[in-house]
């Protein structure tokens, strides 16, 4: 076991309990709830391991989406957070090396003229995505011509595509693998 200095412990858990911001919207990293109603999955497990190595207790601080986790940095309600690293967030949050990489990509409906990823950034294209996600922040930084439509949830972003209000759906690849079942004839990536 790695020995942790009191200085590091006080820096990472100033209250004596490690408070970990958890993004409940990432279904790959938060897979359910315990009988006590606490989030379960990779993110809570990583937070528990950090607390264990620090020799502190743990308090999970759940948020409905990554935007709310990131925005709460100024409130001082969490000591560590398990969200995607993005340059926009680095202005206020110091990120560690990635503990997981989750690919994101696009889904287009049947009959779409878009056949390659490099065609998506076009002035006539409307991209739907969930606001505040790492891939949404990536789109903000990298998409120069297409319109980006932000939704409050992954389901709402899918609804924009289904209702014809968006031409492309951007999301985590794993989520799109289930979304494709709701969009007959859709193409992924």
UniProtKB/TrEMBL annotation:
Keywords: Signal. Residues 17-189 form the Solute-binding protein family 3/N-terminal domain. The keyword Ion transport does not apply. Pfam families: SBP_bac_3. InterPro entries: Solute-binding_3/MltF_N. It comes from the Eukaryota. This is Solute-binding protein family 3/N-terminal domain-containing protein.
């Amino acid at each position: 076991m790695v020995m942790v200095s009191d200085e590091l412990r006080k820096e990472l858990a100033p209250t004596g309990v490690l408070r970990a911001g958890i993004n409940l919207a990432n279904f790959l990293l938060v897979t359910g709830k315990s009988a006590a109603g606490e989030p379960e999955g990779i993110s809570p497990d990583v937070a528990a391991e950090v607390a264990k190595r620090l020799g502190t207790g743990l308090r999970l601080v759940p948020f409905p989406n990554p935007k709310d986790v990131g925005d709460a940095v100024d409130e001082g309600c969490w000591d560590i957070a398990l969200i995607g690293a993005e340059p926009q967030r680095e202005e206020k949050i110091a990120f560690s090396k990635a503990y997981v990489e989750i690919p994101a990509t696009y889904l287009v409906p049947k009959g779409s003229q878009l056949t390659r990823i490099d065609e998506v950034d076009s002035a006539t294209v409307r991209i739907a995505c969930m606001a505040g996600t790492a891939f949404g922040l990536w789109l903000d930084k990298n998409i120069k011509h297409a319109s980006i439509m932000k939704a409050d949830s992954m389901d709402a972003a899918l609804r924009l595509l289904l209702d014809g209000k968006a031409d492309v759906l951007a999301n985590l690849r794993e989520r799109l693998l289930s979304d494709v079942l709701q969009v007959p004839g859709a193409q992924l990536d």
